[in-house]
Design the sequence.
């Protein structure tokens, strides 16, 4: 089974191109910054994962997804290779989106963007309940016998 579920923030607005076939197909590409659960000294806080969305899903991403917005993606991992201009073999890993979901409300996103200074980096996720998600206390011990 090849299934990937990611939740993160868009690093920039999706870029959409159309195929050159008789029936042009939208191809949206964007990157998600997915926070790492644990951070070690000298390591990055997030992984930046390339996402590709085709057809109506690609058009949806272009129309509704904006930089800094938190989204959830369900898809499959794809690894492909190509030869660059110098003849070197290059490998690319990306997630092909099968489902795309908003992970925060529109009003929460707009309020957060209005309050933050205009930066080029992806904003850190909030720890409040405005977007409907509640952080889980990892130190919780339920003392159940099983």
Sequence:
């Amino acid at each position: 089974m090849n299934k990937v579920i990611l939740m993160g923030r868009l690093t920039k607005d999706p870029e959409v191109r159309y195929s050159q076939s008789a029936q042009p197909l939208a191809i949206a590409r964007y990157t998600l910054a997915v926070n790492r659960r644990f951070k070690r000294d000298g390591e990055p806080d997030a992984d930046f994962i390339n996402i590709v969305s085709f057809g109506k899903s690609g058009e949806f991403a272009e129309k509704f997804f904006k930089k800094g917005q938190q989204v959830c993606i369900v898809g499959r991992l794809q690894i492909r290779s190509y030869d660059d201009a110098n003849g070197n073999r290059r490998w690319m890993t990306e997630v092909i989106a099968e489902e795309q979901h908003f992970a925060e409300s529109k009003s929460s996103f707009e309020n957060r963007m209005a309050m933050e200074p205009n930066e080029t980096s992806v904003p850190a996720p909030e720890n409040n309940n405005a977007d409907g998600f509640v952080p889980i206390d990892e130190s919780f011990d339920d003392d159940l016998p099983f």
Remarks:
- The longest strand covers residues 70-83.
- The chain has a mean pLDDT of 83.
- Helices lie at 55-64, 106-115.
- The chain is about 15% helix and 40% strand.
